[in-house]
Amino acid sequence: MGIHPNKISMYNEVAVWDDPQKTVVVYPLFTGIAYTEPGFYTYYRGDCDSCTTTKFSHHSPTYSASGMGYQALSLLGYDVITDMDLDKNPGILAQFDSVIMLHNEYVTRAMFDAITSHPNVLYLYPNALYAEIEVDYSNQTITLIRGHNYPDPEIKNGFDWEFDNTHPYEYDTQCLSMEFYKIENGWMTNCYPENVFLRDNEQLVQLLKAIKDL
Fold this sequence. Notes:
This protein is α/β, with parallel strands linked by helices.
């Protein structure tokens, strides 16, 4: 993904290169680690009893970690931090007027508290803040604590978060009728927009305008 020189006028409409408002995107590094193999999903399939703890890995942006959304927003001038940065320094969000969450499915309690306490958050992807993890920076591991049917099958959201919008919105990956709706501390979407960032059409432009305006 890159900037096309013949589309600068369009980019100027949707970018924040010169925008005085400070907005930060939180890249879901922990979620990317959880999806690597062997990892949490190896455990969920029943192929590994010990994979509720998994090592950090060399990780590049992927579909499961909303890699296209991350690349598009960073190219358009949005500040980016990782969820690891946020976990180490939850107070960092106070520097920003707005926060954009991507597919931040696996988060620590410190992250959850910081995000849900911020007054203006755009939860761009459903399934954010879904499961609680613990991070050991010395051993470079993340451990699943609660959520995603763990440690009991009836547990869905690990934080019992009232605004969890995983079902059914996570599974609408076409986003043909994408909308934003208001919650207590910001906005959520009704579909998983990763494929929208791959489209070169008016829907993408409208999405980027909406993100900038929110």
